[in-house]
Amino acid sequence: MVNNDKGVISLRFNQDQGCFSCCMENALRIYNVEPLTEKSHYDADAIGSLATCEMLNRTNILAIVGGGKQTKYPDNVVLIYDDASDIFLLEIVFSSSVKAVRLRRDKIVVATTTQINVFSFPEKVERLYTLETRNNPNGLCEITPFLTSERHLLVYPGHKAGSVQLLDLANTEAGISSAPITINAHQNEIGCLSMDQQGALIATASTKGTLIRVWDAYKRILIAEFRRGTDPATVYCINFSKDAEFLCCSSDKGTIHIFALKNTQLNKRSTFSSMSFLGTYIESQWALATFTVPPECACICAFVSTKAVIAVCVDGTFHKYVFNADGNCNRESYDVYLDIYEEDEF
To answer: What pTM does this model have?
Structure first.
């Protein structure tokens, strides 16, 4: 995410995309998606401004990292906070700035610019191991979110430009890890990555941002290539629907793209697809449906049902669109989430 005149520093969905956190220069706010309501609100006087906030599912546990103009905490410290009891449970200090945190009920994953650190949690919190990475300024990493999943997978940028590494976290012991598997996903640096909730599929985009590639996490093979556009773009967010039937992505172009993943025949193709002399470029699949939010406004996007996508933007707006198999996409609701406040003290 990027900062803007509304004071929004970062936006982040929880693991099932049913809630999102909003870190601001003057507050931390937690929202429920449907219905859109504010669940928690902390002014900067109480908690300071934050660079990021990671929720643990729908529990009261939050991982926060200081940042912004009114920060109370250094950016190299991860604080685990109990929202219900209003106490800090844990503090983890690193030698460099923390770029991202990912939570599971049994793990804490912390990304710095050059490392991925994995900790056991909540009992006997200890560092299991540290993984060296190439330069990772956005702290890209994802972990299978739910303990019920068959997978216990960690995905992060590899040592080679454009590659991602997959590491099985099952049955790990402190200081011991199996060798990660590498997928050479793009020619340019990895710009965004995502994983479905079952840990079976991985989606990647490069810093060029024109293509979204989807990989089988078991077989480590490419199963789909989607074209976001022809002009380079910064991809802010990629998410799968809960059943992995669809995929959505947002970028700095202000357009949300929705692709069919299971029935790829629903996606649009170039009208020149029969002209093979133009090369493989025109064989890429284009979005089934799209909708546009304020131009060049950073946002995150997710599915709230099989046929409905939301976009939460740094300008404080909230958009919900429904789409069908024909590619028709219509706005169902619009709101300004920054104008919504909880009625009672949390």
So the answer is: 0.91
Let me know the angle formed at the C-alpha of 202 by 121 and 218, rounded to the nearest 5 degrees. 85
How long, in residues, is the chain?
A: 346
Question: Cα 145 vs. chain centroid, distance in angstroms?
Answer: 12
* 278 phi and psi angles, rounded to 5 deg: -80, -10
Nearest to 174 by CA among 116, 130, 108, 114: 130
- The H-or-E segment that residue 45 falls in is helix 44-47
Written as six digits, the tokens of 35 are 């219905």
pLDDT at 245 over 80: yes
Bridge partners, residue 85, by sequence: none
Count CB neighbours of 305 within 10 A. Answer: 12
Q: Which amino acid is at 234?
A: T
- 260 and 244 Cβ atoms separated by less than 8 Å: no
Taking only the tens place, the pLDDT of each residue in 145-202 is 876 666 789 999 999 999 999 998 875 555 555 678 999 999 999 999 999 999 999 9
Structure tokens at 242: 């809960």
At 137 the three-state DSSP class reads coil
CA angle in degrees (0–180, nearest 5) for 219-224-230: 140
Cβ density class 51-61: b for 16+ within 10 Å, e for less = bbbbbbeeeeb
pLDDT confidence of 282, banded at 50, 70, 90?
A: very low
- In sequence order, what are the beta bridge partners of 235? 251
Q: How far apart are CA 216 and CA 319, in angstroms?
A: 31
Sign of CA dihedral 260, 261, 264, 267: positive
Cα-based distances in Å from 207 to 10, 192, 193, 299, 312: 19, 8, 11, 17, 22
Q: How far is CA 342 from the centre of its chain?
A: 26
